[in-house]
Design a protein that fits this description.
The chain is mainly α and 110 residues long. The chain contains three helices and two strands; from the N terminus they run H-E-E-H-H. The chain is elongated, with a radius of gyration of 29 Å.
C-alpha cells in the first residue's frame, strides 16, 4: 500500500528539522575539534630555543651576558633592528627564491 503524498510530506517535514539540527550539531562539533587541535598542536618555537641571559645596568645598557647551553650567543631582536645586508646574506645562502614562492619552494624540493 502506497502512502499518500500528504503523508509523505508530513513525514519528510517531521524528519527534516531533527536531521538538519543533528547535521548542524555534528558540523559544529567537528569544527570545534579541528580548532582545538590546531590551537593545541601548533608549537611555540620560542619555548624550544634557549636564549642567552642578558644583565642590564640601571641606564638600560647591557652589563653582562651568558651564553646559551650550546655555547652560542642568542637573543631576540626586533626585525627592524636587523641589518638589511644580513637578511640578504641569509636569503642568498638559504633560499635564493624566497620572494618568488608562496612559502614552499617546490622547485627546490625536486
Amino acid at each position: 500500500m502506497q502512502p499518500s503524498a500528504w503523508t509523505f510530506k508530513t513525514y519528510r517535514r517531521a524528519l527534516a528539522a531533527p536531521l538538519l539540527g543533528a547535521a548542524a550539531l555534528c558540523l559544529t562539533a567537528l569544527l570545534l575539534c579541528f580548532a582545538l587541535l590546531c590551537l593545541t598542536l601548533k608549537p611555540d618555537l620560542t619555548l624550544y630555543q634557549e636564549r642567552s641571559r642578558l644583565l642590564y645596568d640601571s641606564s638600560g645598557q647591557i652589563a653582562a651576558y651568558s651564553l646559551s647551553a650550546d655555547g652560542r650567543l642568542r637573543f631576540l631582536s626586533p626585525p627592524d633592528t636587523v641589518d638589511p645586508l644580513l637578511i640578504k646574506l641569509i636569503l642568498a645562502a638559504e633560499d635564493e627564491r624566497f620572494y618568488e614562492h608562496p612559502g614552499v619552494d617546490f622547485i627546490a624540493l625536486g
